[in-house]
Amino acid sequence: MASEPMSIGSSAQDPPPVPEATSQEPKYGGHTRFELELEFVQALGNPEYVNYLASRKFLQNPAFVAYLDYLQYWTRPPYLQYITYPTSCLKMLELLQVERFRKDILSPNLTHALVTEGMKAAVEWHRESLS
C-alpha cells in the first residue's frame, strides 16, 4: 500500500487511530504509525536512550522537540492504556518538554541517577506487589 513517508514533520497530524481502527492505516516498514509511536514513547522510559538522543543532538532540533510535544497525546485515554510502563515513559516525555532538562540529560551523572532511581522504584513496586 503506497503512502506518504512518515517524518518528524508529521507532528502536525492528528494522533493515529487506536488499534481497533487501524486495519486501513498505512504501514511504515510493516508497522502502523500507532505501533511506531508507541514503541518510541516506551523507549523514552530508558534514560540511556534519551542520553543517546541528546548526544546525537536530536534534542536540539526544533522539529524533533515539536514531535516530542505532539506525543503528549499518549498521556490521555485511550492511548495511555497501551503503554506498558507509563510512569517512567510519560515522566520522561514531560521532562523533555523542558529545555534545561534536554541540555542536562547529556550529563552521564544525571543519566546514571535516573537509571538508579528507576531501578529503585521497580524494586519497591515489586516488594509492594508481593505484600
UniProtKB/TrEMBL annotation:
Protein name: Mediator of RNA polymerase II transcription subunit 31
InterPro entries: Med31_sf, Mediator_Med31
Top-rank taxon: Eukaryota
Compartment annotation: Nucleus
Sequence similarity: Belongs to the Mediator complex subunit 31 family.
Transmembrane segments: none
Task performed by this protein: Component of the Mediator complex, a coactivator involved in the regulated transcription of nearly all RNA polymerase II-dependent genes. Mediator functions as a bridge to convey information from gene-specific regulatory proteins to the basal RNA polymerase II transcription machinery. Mediator is recruited to promoters by direct interactions with regulatory proteins and serves as a scaffold for the assembly of a functional preinitiation complex with RNA polymerase II and the general transcription factors.
Quaternary assembly: Component of the Mediator complex.
Gene name tied to this protein: soh1
Keywords: Activator, Nucleus, Transcription, Transcription regulation
PANTHER family: MEDIATOR OF RNA POLYMERASE II TRANSCRIPTION SUBUNIT 31 (PTHR13186)
Pfam family, one: Med31
UniProt region (Disordered), positions on chain: 1-28
